[in-house]
Amino acid sequence: MSSVHNVIIIGSGPAGYTAGLYAARAMLDPLMFAGYMSGGQLMLTSDIENFPGYPQGIGGPEMMMQLREQSERFGLEVRDQNVESVDLSEQPFKVVVEGETFLTRAIIVSTGAESIWLNAPGEEEQKGRGISTCATCDGAFFKNEEVMVVGGGDSACEEATFLTRFASKVTLVHRRDVFKASTIMYERAANHEKIEIKTFRQVKEWLSDEKGLTGAVLEDPRDGSTETIDVSGAFIAIGHKPITGFLGGQVEVDGEGYILHKKHTMTSVEGVFAAGDVVDTRYKQAITAAGMGCQAAIDVEKWLEDQH
Predict the structure, then answer these.
(1) Which of 42, 256, 265, 284 could form a disulfide with 60 if both were Cys (CB 3.0 to 4.6 A apart)?
(2) Which entry of 137, 157, 277, 280 is annotated as an active-site residue?
(3) 154-182 residue pLDDT tens
């Protein structure tokens, strides 16, 4: 058992690093478990052009390195380890990491949400090189190019419609002919002159050359027939999965597993706070995650003061 920490931050990314920066500057001596894959989803984003203060844009991994460096300069201790479990039944809370138990008065959860990928052949190599899960982040890189969106829900229809601002053509691919999307979102996409909808199609394989993505082989799940589509960009919009398994059901979540805020950024457990995409079902942007990380750190500082 270690001494009792004021706050342990679980997860990194814009929310975690910003929380760490504010907590460190508040002299709370925060400890962060950033995870083996520290930096979050932005580690897969090649260029970020919509974060204020970077007029020339910045690479996702570079931004995460700078955020980490900035927060460590003020005293955040970062360990690139995964949290295995937590015990929130009594104070101080217990955080178990690789068999070692850490004690803490407060916890900020900023583990984010991972995009659900297709895992089709060729996908891993083209992540961030043509295949993305965020049209808002990466759509502007495909001006006057042909792109495709995979999915059948509101997100897929919304991303397809959004991409028409940049792309010359958007092909919306769905493995069924029934869409989960709301009628208004579906019709907005279906009636757009730049959008072509292909139903009963799923990605069998991604195609690429040395420059990046060139297209995909689409398969009809009914009979196995295939066709090839030429695109330089593809956006997978089949959902996200919040990373909350280590909490063991001790914190209240919604039907999809996202953590619920009860008072400001505090969760259903007094002393446990959450920030970023592990909470956010709407915006999912680096800037909003960073803002929520700031809020969580300030809430922790106030809450700890009130405990004395």
Answers:
(1) 42
(2) 137
(3) 889 999 999 999 999 999 999 999 999 99
